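Input record, target 12 of the design panel.
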């Protein structure tokens, strides 16, 4: 398992939060924290970085891994 911090700039409301949480859960990961103000999500998953980005993209949001 790896933990990633993601920047999701177009995340803005509870609906966004719910979609992202559901997509990550469906992919077998967990959302450890999600901050709508800073637009940062922390995810723990077995997915590789590019696969995690694809999951978020499929949910309708642009994301990038914060290093």
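The sequence produced for target 12 reads:
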């Amino acid at each position: 398992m790896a933990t990633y911090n993601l920047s999701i700039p177009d995340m803005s409301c509870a609906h966004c939060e719910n979609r992202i949480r559901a997509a990550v859960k469906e992919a077998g990961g967990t959302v450890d924290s999600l901050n709508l103000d800073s637009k940062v999500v922390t995810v723990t998953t077995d997915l590789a970085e590019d696969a995690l980005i694809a999951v978020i993209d499929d949910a309708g949001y642009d994301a990038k891994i914060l290093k």
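The helical segments are 14-26, 49-58.
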